[in-house]
Design a protein that fits this description.
The structure is a homodimer of 149-residue chains.
Chain A lengths: L8 H12 L6 H11 L5 E2 H10 L6 H13 L3 E5 L5 E5 L8 E5 L5 E4 L2 H13 L3 E12 L1 H4 L1
Parallel strand pairs in A: 4-6
Antiparallel strand pairs in A: 1-3, 2-3, 4-5
Helix pairs in contact in A: 1-2, 2-3, 2-4, 3-4
Chain A binds a DNA duplex (30 and 30 nucleotides) through α2 and α4.
Amino acid sequence: MSFAPTSSTWAATTIDALRGAGFRTGGARRAVIELLARQTCCLSAQEIWDGLRRESRPVGIASVYRVLEVLADLKLVQRLDVGGGVARYEPMLPSGDHHHHLVCDDCGKVEAFSDEPLEDALRDLGDQAGYDVDAHDVVLRGSCGDCRV
Amino acid sequence: MSFAPTSSTWAATTIDALRGAGFRTGGARRAVIELLARQTCCLSAQEIWDGLRRESRPVGIASVYRVLEVLADLKLVQRLDVGGGVARYEPMLPSGDHHHHLVCDDCGKVEAFSDEPLEDALRDLGDQAGYDVDAHDVVLRGSCGDCRV
DNA sequence: TGCGAAAATGATAGCGAGTCTCATAACTGC
DNA sequence: GCAGTTATGAGACTCGCTATCATTTTCGCA
């Protein structure tokens, strides 16, 4: 169980990828990307909006969603649902490394984990089913060590 | 890859479990349970509401959500997110058998699959992380055979 | 460096899933 | 049957997210 936190190069890579795809780079886009680059796990759009506002870099909520949509389409961020009707987003590293999530139903905490055998099993399954799988989410729910006491 | 469809005994078991937990059995509750029992894969609350309406068994949308909430709390149905901001529900069989989902991002189709090695891997992971896991969702996204042509 | 076309941004209205409230209807034990 | 309690349904409401559109910003090009 391990996960290398997002390096600061992700921001640069992402902005390059956007320009390569013909997008211009406005302030909102850069602000969202730079905030995401500093995170180690998933954030909701609201959390991103709050974070930017707290750093005195206010951005329209619509822009936050737009940036996230573009980034998700280009597979530069992963969008995932951990329940509660709120989508969460996190950087996708160019290395292809990624992780999945443990969600505590009691306190709402979200933790990351990664596991290579699990990835292998998932890859095989997609092939087997005739699907061209380009993303997979694994969410384990339960009570974390703290809440179970 | 296999999945035994929900048997009609699930409805009876579920109603018994509700009564055992001190709930009464009104018409809406029974209608939702009986409709769910006939499904082989997950349904959204709206689809359940539409289905009941189509069988001339109209039920308030609030009741549908209430029934689903109670059933999910008692672990008689599994609630899962396959994206799109809509929760889906499906019966949890007493045998403990369950399955996961392949979602086609193009046509929205949802298919079920199950895989024992995957279950083992997930069980091990939960233990390893110190979590008391009581549910897990695995969602593979991509293009299905039909859409990829 | 300055211009203009085209894209990005932000405020706000709109949409839809899901929840809350409360008066009414139905169930259950007696 | 009756009374007490629970379930139900209509509709108002919340909130995450999207669509719209006027304004601002970016960037190729002279």
